[in-house]
Q: What sequence folds into this?
C-alpha cells in the first residue's frame, strides 16, 4: 500500500519560518503532498525574546484566520491536499500562559517540543486534563504530538511511564527528518514499544523554508524499518475525520 505523503510540522512567517502560508500551501501542492500542518511556535520562555512566535491572542487569531482561508480555498478548488491548523508549544512556557492563551479546539494538531523528563510528562498531562475538563472532552479536541522527541532521555529511565503516557493520552511520536540521530537502532526497544502498544506516529520536517517541505523520505524509511506503517495509517484515519 502506498502511504500518503504528510508533513505535519511546518513554520511560517508567523514565527521563525521564512515563507508565507500562501507560499507554503502552493509549494506543498506543487510537490504533491497529501496532508500538511502549519505549526508555528508558541512560547513565553526566554526564547520568546529570540524567536518570533504566536505570543498574543490577536496574532493567533490572524494566523488561524489565514489558515482558514486556505482551507476553504483547497476545499472550493477540490484539491487533494488537506491543510491543518497547528501550533508548537515550547515546554519551557508557563502553564498559566499556555492555558490562558491557547484554545485547544481551534487547532487540529498541538505539538509539544522539548519533552526531556518525567516532570515534562506531568506538565503536559496537567494541561491536557485542564483543557479536557474545560472543553468537556469535545469531539474537536486536537491531536497531540511530541515534536522532534529524543528517546535518549527516557531509554535508561522512565520508558514505561513515557509509553503509558503516549498510549493513554493518544499522543503521537513524530519522525522528523531534521533529527535522524533520534531514530538510531540503539533505541530499537523504544520503537518496538511504539509498535506493540499501537502508539500513533507522524512525519514532520520542522521546515522553516519551502525548500525542505518535501524532505520526508528518510522518515518513511525509518517507519518502514521499525514496521510502524500501521501506526501511521491509524494517525491518517484520525486526520481524515478532521478534514473540513
Ligand atoms: Zn518546529
A:
Amino acid at each position: 500500500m502506498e502511504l500518503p505523503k504528510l508533513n505535519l510540522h511546518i513554520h511560517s512567517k508567523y514565527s521563525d519560518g521564512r515563507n508565507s502560508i500562501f507560499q507554503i500551501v502552493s509549494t506543498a501542492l506543487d510537490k504533491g503532498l497529501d496532508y500538511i500542518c502549519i505549526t508555528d511556535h508558541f512560547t513565553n520562555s526566554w526564547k520568546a525574546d529570540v524567536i518570533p512566535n504566536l505570543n498574543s491572542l490577536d496574532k493567533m487569531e490572524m494566523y488561524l484566520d489565514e489558515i482558514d482561508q486556505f482551507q476553504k480555498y483547497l476545499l472550493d478548488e477540490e484539491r487533494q491536499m488537506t491543510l491543518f491548523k497547528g501550533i508548537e508549544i515550547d515546554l519551557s512556557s508557563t502553564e498559566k500562559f499556555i492555558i490562558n492563551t491557547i484554545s485547544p479546539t481551534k487547532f487540529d494538531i498541538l505539538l509539544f517540543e522539548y519533552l526531556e523528563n518525567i516532570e515534562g510528562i506531568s506538565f503536559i498531562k496537567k494541561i491536557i486534563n485542564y483543557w479536557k475538563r474545560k472543553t468537556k472532552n469535545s469531539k474537536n479536541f486536537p491531536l497531540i504530538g511530541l515534536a522532534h522527541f529524543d528517546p535518549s532521555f527516557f531509554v535508561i529511565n522512565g520508558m514505561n511511564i513515557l509509553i503509558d503516557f503516549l498510549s493513554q493520552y493518544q499522543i503521537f511520536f513524530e519522525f522528523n527528518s531534521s533529527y535522524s540521530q533520534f531514530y538510531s537502532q540503539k533505541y530499537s526497544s523504544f520503537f518496538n514499544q511504539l509498535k506493540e502498544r499501537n502508539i500513533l506516529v507522524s512525519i514532520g520536517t520542522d521546515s522553516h523554508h519551502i525548500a525542505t517541505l518535501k524532505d520526508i523520505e528518510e522518515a518513511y524509511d525509518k517507519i518502514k524499518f521499525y514496521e510502524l506503517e500501521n501506526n501511521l495509517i491509524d494517525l491518517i484515519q484520525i486526520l481524515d475525520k478532521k478534514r473540513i
Q: What stands out?
A: The chain has one domain: 6-242. The radius of gyration is 17 Å.
